[in-house]
Amino acid sequence: MTFATFKDNTTAPVQAGPTAAAIRHRLLRRPLGRVHWLWLALFLALQIADVLTTNRALTIPGVTEVNPVMAAFQARLGPAWWLPKAMAVAWFAVAISLSRRRWPMFFAVSCCSLVVVINLANL
User: What is the DSSP-derived secondary structure letter of residue 79?
Assistant: First the structure.
């Protein structure tokens, strides 16, 4: 049992609450909810849409890739340019599932939605 000491040197028993490590452990054991899986599915669908719309837009004369990293992969890997992107997406999906925070997924889905809309506007 834990005791608290007050200014007048009296003590009283205090029930200790859960530690930060115990709270973190409890959160990590919590199963992922349906909302997480829906957002993850939306994120993956947007990534596929991004690859498909990018490939389609690049067939149009005068359209180039704006992202310099993806442009370098396209120049080096040709039609397989999306493989490094797929690895990064897989890493992100696992990392976000382990993190159990929702805001990174919301942010990623928002950014990917914008990219797909821009790609569709170029078609």
Answer: G
